[in-house]
Write a structure and sequence with these properties.
- The protein is mainly alpha-helical.
- The chain has 2 domains: about 90 residues, Orthogonal Bundle (Rna Polymerase Sigma Factor, Chain: A), CATH 1.10.1740; about 60 residues, Winged helix-like DNA-binding domain superfamily/Winged helix DNA-binding domain (Arc Repressor Mutant, subunit A, Orthogonal Bundle).
- Helix content is about 85%, strand content about 0%.
- Helix 2 packs across helix 3 and helix 4 packs antiparallel against helix 5.
- The longest helix is centred in the middle third of the chain and has 59 residues.
- The radius of gyration is 38 Å and the shape is rod-shaped.
- One of its GO terms (molecular function) is DNA binding.
- InterPro entries: RNA_pol_sigma-70-like (IPR039425), RNA_pol_sigma-70_dom (IPR014284), RNA_pol_sigma70_r2 (IPR007627), RNA_pol_sigma70_r4_t2 (IPR013249), RNA_pol_sigma_r2 (IPR013325), RNA_pol_sigma_r3/r4-like (IPR013324), WH-like_DNA-bd_sf (IPR036388).
- It comes from Acinetobacter qingfengensis.
- Keywords: Sigma factor, Transcription, Transcription regulation.
Length: about 180
Amino acid sequence: MTSSTSSKAQQHLISEMYLQHHDWLLQWLRHRIKHPLNAADIVQDTFLRLLQAQQKITALQEPRAYLLNIAKHLLIDQHRRYTIEKNYMEALCEQLQLDEQDSQQSRFEDVIQILDFLTVALSTTHSTARQSFLMYYFEGYTQTEIAENLQLSLRTIQGYLADCLSLCYETRHRLNAELNDE
């Protein structure tokens, strides 16, 4: 028997096995798998493996047992893949949560650093000037609202804000110079 004749005989046998055992294998898998679409996929993959097999299947005594064995191996492979994907997704979610916590911690540390800087920079100013600065830059008040609230002139508030900004600039410049000297 030539290889082309042998190949045709093998394909014919697989075709016969498909017609005879497809529905049975599908039903068997549907009873064991949660999702019916997965059962249909595994049946198709089973016959695909059968087509790709290099061994001769003409001498099979128990075709159902052989198909069942292939299907079971595919189920095991699918479960392993699912477990790996699930573990990977859980690890990824955990890493994202850690990254978010690190990011929040970093932002918190930045805020603390800014507040420390402002405490140093504005330590020599009058309390009303500090209050004006905080109201304008952190609480969102307008200069006019601050002047009305503190019962001071708009010009005084503008002077306080300019003085505070100047102190912040000088302090930043001094701190940068100290860092560069180290």
